[in-house]
Specification:
homodimer, 10 helices, DNA-binding
DNA sequence: GTCTATAATCAGATAGAC
DNA sequence: GTCTATCTGATTATAGAC
């Protein structure tokens, strides 16, 4: 509830928002780097440059801290999907999305999703923002997948859900880090290779 | 160094070995279930049914505990590879290996590899048994990959190292768990689908 | 080698002054 | 809201009896 005397309150809110954005950026990076379990709240505070207790004024727990980062990534994915031309061939859009997630991962900005039994996982499942985003993303991708299958650009033999999961999984594919560690290829080359294995497969065509 | 008076010493050693096998089996399962960070030594001891202090008589640290499990998996992979017919088409052998790792994962026996910066990772890098096994596996797979590419069964455009990493990555592909959680498909169907996405790709052929 | 009991450390979370 | 200092509990690891 803000007064009508001008943008004074809004300024304070902007400061708050900026600080929280900085926190989430740090969390996002650490989450990508070492995963939820290995990330410590002390580290987050140190990287942000504030006291740990101050963190807890913004986020009530470590899980909520991580969830905020996951929600932000999901938002970005939604934004990216929304901007893709619905007139383009569905397969092109799908490739564009996978390329985007891979570039995110190569930049160290893709938090590793908790596939295992984690406290973060249950927190996320109860987070409306995250789940809504996930549904939205899944719906959009699902529509393109079915369209691509209908025009036989994607294999119609695979269940659409299997294709969807495969696209999600490529966003956290360890192959990207392996190839990057090797140091033999540029990021752009790595993306193209993994993109090729994903859509074209390993077998010759 | 055993005496020559008979199998007496061997019996005690067998008991010891059996106990350690039981420990490693538990560690392997927990590692697959929750990963290294989330697994606790207390859990391991409870599952095995012995006191935690007894565990530390067998293995000097949590890292070594996990490393022993990783080494065992690597040994099994080596055994499996050795038993494959070198006369068979290389692509068939590669498919067989990937199928084997996927079945392992679906049975909950594939420890999630520490792709992230983990204390386990550095321990493994200094573990001769593990690294030797990894080299052996990589060499065998690498030879088949190059042979398959030479006869154009695998795409010759991809660097062999990229193919190798892709095969490794499929061993811990989260798509398998996703599809299993959905409950719509039998394990065998899931394996065939992921095998298809891996070798044939998502695009129609 | 196995146990009970305990040390030592670390990490998530909080109290209370400013 | 931010800080310092502290609490609390969990977890790795060990001591010492049997």
């Amino acid at each position: 509830m803000r007064s009508n005397t001008g943008p004074k309150v809004s300024f304070k809110e902007q400061m708050l928002q900026a600080r929280e954005d900085a926190i989430i950026a740090v969390v996002n990076q650490l989450l990508a780097e070492k995963g939820f379990e290995a990330m410590t709240v002390d580290e987050v505070a140190a990287h942000v440059g504030i006291a740990k207790a101050s963190l807890y004024k913004h986020f009530p727990s470590k899980e909520d801290l991580a969830a905020a980062a996951m929600v932000r990534v999901m938002r970005r994915a939604q934004d990216f999907l929304r901007d893709l031309p619905d007139s383009a061939p569905p397969l092109d859009n799908l490739r564009a999305v996978v390329r985007w997630t891979m570039e995110l991962k190569l930049r160290g900005e893709m938090p590793s999703l908790p596939s295992q039994n984690s406290s973060l996982r249950t927190t996320l499942m109860h987070n409306k923002d995250y789940m809504d985003g996930l549904m939205d993303v899944s719906d959009r991708l699902g529509a393109w997948i079915e369209a691509a299958q209908a025009q036989r650009a994607l294999s119609p033999d695979l269940p659409a859900i299997a294709v969807l999961y495969t696209l999600f999984a490529r966003a956290c594919d360890p192959v990207l880090e392996f190839l990057k560690m090797g140091g033999l290829y540029e990021d752009a080359q790595i993306v193209e290779m993994v993109l090729s294995t994903c859509f074209d497969g390993l077998k010759a065509r």
